[in-house]
Amino acid sequence: MSLLKFACASLFSLTLAQAAVAADCAADSSHGAQIFNTECGVCHAVKKDVTGMMGPNLNGVIGRKSGSLAGFSYSQAMRSKDVTWQAETIAELITQPQAYVPGTYMPYMGLASKDDREAVVCFLKSKEAL
Q1: Which intervals hold domain Cytochrome c (predicted)?
Q2: Is 45 helix (H, G, I), strand (E, B) or coil?
Q3: What pLDDT, on a 0 to 100 scale, did the predictor assign at position 29?
Q4: φ, ψ for residue 98 (rounded to 5)?
């Protein structure tokens, strides 16, 4: 196989894989919205410019540094965590917040189901949460 054919085949495979992940995430987004509303929405908002909640606004949380949303009073533990929130780190946090960030003010016990955690992450990555 020529290098050009290999590169095209690899790119096509990668594009198909990314499309499959995006499709899975899109399907999980509505389930994630339901879980977010029942499990997370008590303390967190995702609509832009909503303040005054017990937890920080999670609109645009993907790519944000931990403890960095202006105007929110984070625990020293969360400010010191030094993580940039990505799908994997958010999933770790919502598995068991106190274990992931010892000393966090977040009173949530954690979301046991891996599928539910992935759905919440998909929701946070979706247009609905932006």
Answers
A1: 27-128
A2: coil
A3: 87
A4: -70, -30
Distance CA 61, CA 63 (A): 6
Beta pairing partners, 84: 65
Residue 116: count of CB within 10 angstroms of its CB: 18
Q: CB under 8 Å to 44, separation ≥6 — which residues?
A: 36, 53, 54, 55, 56, 57, 58
Phi/psi of residue 13, nearest 5 degrees: -65, -45
The CATH number given to 28-129 is: 1.10.760.10
**Digit-coded pLDDT (tens) for 21-57:** 454 576 578 899 999 999 999 999 999 989 999 999 9
At 66 the three-state DSSP class reads coil
What are the structural domain ranges in the chain? 28-129
User: How far does CA 112 lie from the centroid of its chain?
Assistant: 15
